[in-house]
Design goal:
By secondary structure, this protein is α+β, with helices and mostly antiparallel strands. It has one domain. The strands form two sheets. Strands 1-4-5-6-7 form a five-stranded mixed sheet, covered by helices on one side. Strands 2-3 form a two-stranded antiparallel ribbon. The chain is elongated.
Length: 174
């Protein structure tokens, strides 16, 4: 009789855990899919960054999901609450991940995801968005090659600390 009760108790606990997992999945804001890339060592060995030598572009999405239809979707997690619409810089970051996935996997993602604490945004990745992204990269490369780089646009120490140009910047705050 005691083993029967223990079996029912374990079954009930398993059912509760399954329901909790389903609830977390539904509230995550992420599509169903298989995780194939994670920029964390908690799920797998940290993979190398994605790279495109033609654009000299490197990036590591937080996650890449393979959907049931085979499509790849990069996911970028943000630690803040969602704005009314995603920040332009976040959109371009996800477009960069879409571009890098296309170059590295030979497969064009239909969209990328920006996941804020409380909301997700789908960023379409079609020819128009791709061309907009490539124009931005071209403009950035032109500015990089210019002897008259633009002035710093902020007074934030944290941004300077994380900047890739910090060591060569004559306007660094640190």
């Amino acid at each position: 009789m005691k083993s029967w009760f223990a079996s029912i108790l374990l079954l009930a606990i398993a059912l509760v855990l399954i329901l909790i997992a389903i609830w977390f999945k539904k509230t995550s804001g992420l599509p169903s899919g298989r995780l194939i890339y994670a920029d964390t060592d908690q799920l797998q060995a940290v993979p190398g960054p994605l790279f495109d030598p033609n654009l000299r572009l490197v990036g590591k999405p937080d996650y890449v999901l393979r959907l049931a239809n085979g499509a790849l979707v990069p996911v970028d997690f943000k630690s803040t609450l969602a704005p009314v619409e995603p920040y332009r810089s976040h959109v371009f970051q996800v477009l960069a991940y879409c571009y890098l996935l296309e170059q590295n996997y030979g497969q064009k993602p239909p969209y990328g995801l920006i996941r804020y604490q409380d909301k997700s945004f789908e960023v379409p990745y079609d020819e128009l968005e791709k061309e907009t992204f490539l124009r931005l990269i071209s403009q950035l490369r032109t500015v990089e090659a210019s002897p008259d780089a633009p002035n710093r646009s902020h007074k934030a120490l944290a941004r300077c600390r994380g900047c890739g140009y910090r060591d060569s910047c004559d306007q660094s705050l640190i």
